[in-house]
Design goal:
Largest sheet: 7 strands, mixed
Shape: elongated
Structural class: alpha+beta
Distance between the termini: 46 Å
Strand order of the largest sheet: 2-4-3-1-5-6-7
Number of helices: 10
Order of helices and strands: HHHHHHEHEHEEHEEEH
Strand content: 5-15%
Amino acid sequence: MDAIINFINSQLSSIRVLDIIDVAVVAFVVYKLILLIKETRAEQLIKGIIALFVIAKVSGWLRLYTINWILENTMTLGMIAILIVFQPELRRVLEFIGRNNFFNKSILDIQDEDAKKVSSEIVTAMSSLSRQKIGALLVLERKTGLNEIVETGTKLDALISSELLINIFIPNTPLHDGAVIIKGDKIKAAACFLPLTDSKLVSKELGTRHRAALGISEKSDSLTIIVSEETGAISITENGEITRYIDEDTLREILLEFYKKVNAGFLAEWRTDNERK
């Protein structure tokens, strides 16, 4: 017993503060990676890779040489396949790291008064479209650039106004079908195509417009506003999650908070989130 206690004490005494920091950083990174791949295709693929690794080790212990040789070579080639299969997830990780740069200055710098005006114009337009049950899809760019999405539509580069937004989404007009991309206080483009979500958890009652909104929110840090043409209900998507049945006041608060975070930068956003908790 004394020998065991002495062994434990010797091991504990050899641990440095840097070792604890090292383990804590690795644990934090692994935790964040798990959150990023949770409920995505990558989660199932990783389970499959772990299963293959376990089977390979077991076949080696049992001296099943043919099976072990096949699995070992499959795992070696699999490292290259992982980079191809996990391309969307790897992109999300790199974008996440790039967005959370302490020295990053937002390109969407809008003053408080301008933010209130822009928010009011968007709320007025979305409320009007909601009452008329006219479908709409609005994407507000944050830090992840959406130029590849802008290229799929018609560039406008026009100041935001409720009248313009309403006219864009009026049925049977040239630009009504697709998404409007907003960057700062300007409408960058209309009639843009968005990627659809691959999630199997999306409600069957949600149509293509809502699936497109979820898709772009999974691939960027944008905020998306949707108006349903069936019910007129207003919804938002952010970080791959959808919130439905938003009223005017709530939408205005969400937009003001959106522009506040955009202008504040990473440190101020971090403080705001912690104060809320």
